[in-house]
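Complex 224.
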Amino acid sequence: MKLLSPSILSADFSALGHQAKIATEAGADFLHIDVMDGHFVPNISFGSAVMKSLNSHNTAPYDVHLMIENPEQYISEFVTDKTEYIVVHQEATIHLNRLISQIKSTGVKAGVSINPATPVYTLKHVLNMVDLVLVMSVNPGFGGQSFIEDSVNKVRELARIREEREDCNFLIEIDGGINRKNAKMVLDAGVDIIVAGSAVFKGDEETITENINEFMKVMGRRNP
Ligand code: DX5
Ligand code: ZN
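Predicted structure with zinc ion bound:
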């Protein structure tokens, strides 16, 4: 089944709990938690306290996307009963193998992400360790940017590797510039989890539900 992970980065932070509740009630499979430190990416978002404050407002598990330097120091902060994935950037650590093992030792699933300029082959020796690969389809840092077309080639490459290698069993997630128009193309290429920020959280509460419904239709989970 194809899955949807709305990014709360584009939500109205003054009504975050409420908007998270609306999104999960509308059928969001995860909440995508974009953590930015102003160093790895040129923007600061929020930390684990904000994520934890949502616990009572949503029923969906967290898909935590760490866009931070020294991720090793912060993994344990993001481990909660609701944390399903912690995703780290290949570019943010020298010891990726060790970091993935660290995440898995907490009992949470481990994901690895690559920026638009980073080739898939840099993940060759960790693909058998991870539960998820996140292909960035914009340069991370901000919501509302335009989709970078070449990302589809990376998704196809990962889908092919997963098919060919018996030791790999990761899900493919895509993040950045996804809307209801280009969603089908990335799903057809092999994406399992779509992250969408501005295409879900723009507009009022009714619109959030409507936006999620539209994605569910493209994913074949609601009648058109
Ligand atoms: C970008 C973040 C994304 C962002 C996506 O750095 O990692 O998760 O929220 O936003 P949209 O869907 O608006 O491109
Ligand atoms: Zn993200």
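DSSP finds seven helices and eight strands in the chain.
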